[in-house]
Specification:
By secondary structure, the chain is α/β, with parallel strands linked by helices. The chain is built from eleven helices and twelve strands. It folds into two domains: 116 residues, Alpha-Beta Complex (Aldehyde Oxidoreductase, domain 3); 152 residues, TIM Barrel, CATH 3.20.20. β8, α8 and β9 form a beta-alpha-beta unit.
Length: 279
Amino acid sequence: MKKIIKDFIKKSLEEDVGQGDLTSNACITKGTIGEAKLITKEACYISGINLAQHIYEFYDENLIFKSIVNEGQFVKKNDIIFTIQGNKHAILATERLILNCMQRMSGITTKTREFVKAVKNYNVKILDTRKTCPTIRFLDKEAVRLGGGHNHRFGLYDEMMIKDNHIDFSGGIENAIKNCQIFNKKINKEIPIIVEVRNFNELNKVLNIGGINRILLDNFSIQMTKDAVDRVNNLIPLESSGNINIKNVKKYAKCGVNFISIGSLTHSVKSIDLSMLST
């Protein structure tokens, strides 16, 4: 089990269980064995099954977990996702954490799949963003991946992405790019450089400077995006971002961009309704 997952589970259980589950301790005889199943209450693309297994293993390694479906699989209303057998106290203590995680992750996976399907006939990748829930970005991004999407940078530490405030604070887009290129040489690395442009003036400046890995077209209209694709002419990969939704994503894909990033995949999540039932 990866450290990030183990730490997350530990802190989450400390938050919820604390010194013990008072209701279960009062109502249920210690050490008694039971069984439960997780079911869907609406159709969705399910995710978080592996995390659920990790949670059970962390809390009580004697619990018997049996997955019925696979991660990212489409499931119908009332389908059984998995069964869990063992100590009743352990099953109840972990129930809410598992439901909270899987409901959110499945919501992200389902929404991502909708976007991926919408652009399936175009050579474009759907990306997530850093607009995730703090401390559980790794879960949000895993849910995107299970929906057929692709992960953008995980944080400020793995790519350089020059945005509007960087440009303004640097005294212009040329300075921002050159400073990043100098930084790469200084540390003797080739960290990818992505540049966000707000208009054609900035786009032309980026093309003249060169030496970057991707251009992000920020809040460009459909027509502006078409014109930008023609202007760049495959010299540098292009990403569309800003105010893109399920109604217009296909139009952006038709323009010929290489990537489309969708912040709402993770910042506006509709959780999927799941339920844990004793059997």
